Amino acid sequence: MTALLEEIIVTASPARVFAAITELWPPERPNPVIGKAVVLGGSIAGLLAARVLADHADSVVIIDRDELRGTGPRRGVPQSTQLHALLPGGLLHLERLFPGFNREALALGAVAVPPESRVTYVDGRRKVVVPDESEILAGSRPFLEGLVRRRVLQLPNVKVVQARGTGLVIDGDAVTGVRTDSDGMDGVESADLVVDAMGRSSRLSDWLEQGGWERPPLRRMTLDLNYATAYFRRREQNPEHTVVMSAYTEKSRVDVAGVAFFAVEDDRWMLMMAGYGDDRPGSTRDDLLRRMRSDFPPEFAALAGEELIGDIATYRHPDSRRRDYHALRRFPAGLVSVGDAVASFNPVYGQGMTSAALHAAALSMYLRSAPDLRAPAREFFALQKVVVDAAWTTSTSADLALPHVDGPYPPGYALTKPIADRVLNATVTDVRIARVFNEVVSMLRHPNDLAKPGIVLRSLLIR
């Protein structure tokens, strides 16, 4: 076991472990420790897991019920019509996994979003611009997923099987394969390691229980989030502002959680509007345009004057949820879980694809530690927990402030919330605090960095 993995288990230093995961580079040359790996699910998390496994397995098989060689939204990704962006933490790791990824994406129409081109409002107040070197990559979900898919499927030891996973094959204390159904034909795909990347609706918990194993503890935070996305024609090739966001806290007393628009591929603007509970802002053309002209900062009124392309797409996100595999006392060897199958967050914060990239980095770190694959992958789940905790803390701490959200609350929430509110308020005008906050939200730094005495004291002194 490496010193870093030992530290996770023995001393639990989340910020240091998170930094090590975010700074990880792929190995210089493949080092197979696995014969055959099977990935259940071909979305972003599954594709990135397959990319990592290609360095450590003789062969990798991706199983998905959808045709993965096409383009456009997929049935298995119902949220793909909604606004997505690749945060700096995720973009950094994708560039390491796929050298030249950023350059290729830009050449094909993605839009670079440097800090100076972003405009952010909180409750109608424009935030200070934070000078740094991190970039967001803006593009639609099918576009970004298509780029990743093409690069993964170019790998000589990766192939795709179009089928539906129906269960695990377990021999003693280890998973040895996956049961499949392809057009009514049952089959088995043998494996030395199985990766669950089946998303929020993953059936792995049921399969484990059916096999006599424990279900992972499931935590849920009810959000009842509704959001709508629309495309507008973009006439400017290089607009001054490529992203405009306006977020609203409980103090604003408006029925909108947030609204944003991004420049994306094919000379389009992609706009998202979100609300909670019975509030479904922007779900009709008239409501969307009326709100853009009257309820938000002037940039949105200007966009409302552009040509609206196609229909408005809506989506409902009922809750944030996480399955705590790290907490299981009994778990079979030869099995891990990644992406939304482990933790799915409020999509308003845009953490999904970046979290998937960091789960892949955790998997790479685990496989390079010379693990005993005949034993449960507890070291991997310990690494992954650090990433999940970071994203969960960032998103749920904001969601707990919403009037309709009633927990679960973390220990000490009543004491820490007033301080967190002061730090958030300070980001509007203080460049130093805003820079740390942005790096935490972008998943470049651990949330504990916002709780350092210097940051807290500085925020308390701001009036």
TrEMBL record:
This is 2-polyprenyl-6-methoxyphenol hydroxylase. PANTHER family: THIAMINE THIAZOLE SYNTHASE.
